[in-house]
Design a protein that fits this description.
The structure is a homodimer of 216-residue chains.
Chain A: H1 2-36, H2 39-69, H3 74-107, H4 118-141, H5 144-169, H6 176-209
Helix pairs in contact in A: 1-2, 1-3, 1-4, 2-3, 3-6, 4-5, 4-6, 5-6
GO cellular component, one term (chains A, B): cytoplasm
Domain PhoU (chains A, B): 16-103, 121-204
InterPro entries (chains A, B): PhoU, PhoU-like_sf, PhoU_dom
Chain lengths: 216, 216
Amino acid sequence: MRDQYHQQLDEVLTELERMTGIVSTAVRRSTSALLTADLGTAEEVIAADSQLDLAGEVVEEKIFDLMALQAPVAVELRMLVAALRMVADLERMGDLAAHVAKITRMRYPAAAIPVELHGLIEDMGRVAQRMVDQAGEVIKTRDVSVAQRIESTDDEMDTLRSSQFRQMMDAAWPYGVEVAVDLALLGRYYERIADHAVSMAQRIIFLVTGEMPASQ
Amino acid sequence: MRDQYHQQLDEVLTELERMTGIVSTAVRRSTSALLTADLGTAEEVIAADSQLDLAGEVVEEKIFDLMALQAPVAVELRMLVAALRMVADLERMGDLAAHVAKITRMRYPAAAIPVELHGLIEDMGRVAQRMVDQAGEVIKTRDVSVAQRIESTDDEMDTLRSSQFRQMMDAAWPYGVEVAVDLALLGRYYERIADHAVSMAQRIIFLVTGEMPASQ
């Protein structure tokens, strides 16, 4: 009975790792579509989000089965709730990548972001994707030190957001209001993806060790 | 045993209703502070958010106790997970109200929002607060029809967001980039508060009826 429980829990973790890979792809492709005004790719990212939600529902069902069938003890219930919250994190990260793609669609055939600002968006997309990949790596390796690394990568995101605000608030900002509004929202979406990656890392530590990290 | 379970579940619902009241106050006060550039009130809203998080942790513990001690059957476990998700919704709504207050703090002693745009922010704050209040009412009355009303109130929020974007994208927008960036983020915060109110309403329907509404 206990062996079966742990085997099913491993299956859940494998599914979560797979979802993390899907989110990583969505972040990469939505950023690429944004910078190349590629409507087709943007539409694909938006459509793929429903697939991610479906995958999430399947994992949730597995977790509910584990909760109901295997009579888990108290700490195991908390671990299963942590797994449910990771599903919610991943679904939300997928929504946010789709939001990035929707800005591409809204501005098409124009490009939302002027070439001079591509570096900033590339950096934000790259940092967000790295954090998602690190979360996947923690699930795969159960290595708590990688989870801690996610938090220092998150500091890079904060630095990028500050730099973004400084540019937009400069009196000499040459790109007008529309670009500033798009950039503010895009920055928010990438920041939220990063926040969810940090939350995931903390939940995985709990799932693996049964103890919450001190920072939460 | 069953009576005790239902009594403790009622206590959880009462706590959730109380948290909803705290969030409603935070939304009202953060909007008021924004429109009057009232740093003191903004700081109070930011400080009160930690209190809300503490209240949330206490409710979570009660829910985990119910999960572990009362050996709930499958549908009850799902209801308890729905209650946990409502705690997370409420904590997040509190964060978002604090984000509104932080914009007040960032721009102080200047006002973030020009007088001509006060009506729009008032409307967004009022609709968001009404949705939070309606969520509290559903918890209190277990009246499914009120839950459905939240979704039509959410349509008002969508209309306000569209009107906001139209104004900002107008070539004659006179308030510059800084106001546009603040307004875009504020609109996003109010919209997310509204989204969480809709999610809460759906979860309460499930908690009360044991069935998910068709829209989810």
